[in-house]
Each structure stands twice: as C-alpha cells, then as structure tokens.
Amino acid sequence: TSQLTHTNVNVVFPRQFLLRRARRKSSNFAPKTASSRPKSVQFRFPAMATPAPTSLDVTDLKFKLQNKVPVFAGDGTVRDGCCLLAAASVHGLVFVGTTGPQLRVLQLSSITPDKVIDEVVPLRTVALPSEPVQLAVSCDHGLLAVDVVVGGVPFVYVYSVPSFLTPTVGKLYEIRTSPEGGVRSTQILWNPVIHNMFSLRTENG
Predict the structure, then answer these.
(1) pLDDT in tens, 156-190
(2) 85-202: what CATH class?
(3) Where does the source fall among the domains of life (predicted)?
(4) Domain-by-domain residue ranges, the chain?
C-alpha cells in the first residue's frame, strides 16, 4: 500500500518584498486623499479656424459690359424657371440655349477685353431634338447636361465638353428623366465633388 506523506515547505521572502506588500495592503484601506487621486489630463488642440476679418460694405461696385452677343431672335418666348447659360472655363467655352431646337457655343477668347464690343462673334450651332430648358456643366467642366424632349419623352443628353472643340460633338448618354411624357426638368445640379454624378428635379416632383 502506498502512503501519502505531507511535507511542509517553508518559503522565505526577502524583507524588501514583505515591506512592499505590507505598504500595498495598507494603501488599499486608507482613505483616498487629493494627492493619491489620479490627476486629470488636459489636451490642447490647435485652433481649427481663424476669426473672420471685419466685414466691409462696398457700395461703389461697377459692372462693365464685356460684349454683346446675339444668340437668337428677340421674338422668341423663353419658359419660366429655365437655365440657358452654362460655362466651362477650363476649356474656354460658353453654352447658350435658344428658344428653338439649337444650342449655341462660343469661345471665351472671342469676348475677352481686347475685343471690340458689338464685333461679330463666331458661334457654333448644335442641333437638338427640341428647345432646351436646362443646361449644366459638371464640376470638372468635362460634361454638359441638356434637358430636351424626344418624341414627347423627356431626356437629358450628356455631352463631352472637350468634343465641342473638335469637328464632331460627342454625345455620351441619353437619360430618360420621367416615365410621363412632356415633363420637363426644373433644375439640374451636378455633384460638386464627383464629376460624373448629378441630381435632377422635374416639374411633377
């Protein structure tokens, strides 16, 4: 038969260890004092914005006539709430809608200060399926959206702006804007950051 024997093992700790342990126990039961509480830490961040300068009212603004460019006959009727002017300054182009099924394009260099007022300005005419109501250029000045009607169905045509400087104008997309016929858009808004995204508001909401 086997016999179990119990052996006592005495562990001797160094005196410094015992003193340290005794202090730790006493500190756990001692009341917290202001010195023993954790100190709060404050972070200082740099100012994110600087104060705006003092406002100044300017009442002597003057607008100088740059040039006058006839784009369509004066007997046409323009719809209310339309937007028939858009500019792509990156490519030096201005787009103007007309009261007919046309889009007029002119170069900014043709109406710069060194030109004579009332001088004949060359215009490029682009045929459309109907009169435009809304024109809008994307944030990178690379795309032009035009609201038109094709066979009674509302569309937005998206053109490549650089193609207006070439012999052939490039139409990239034809987007139907409403399942109902004859509904025109009241506003085209391109995303200010994403160049190939826009929102559209129509007459019927």
Answers:
(1) 999 999 999 999 999 999 999 888 888 888 999 99
(2) mainly beta
(3) Eukaryota
(4) 85-202
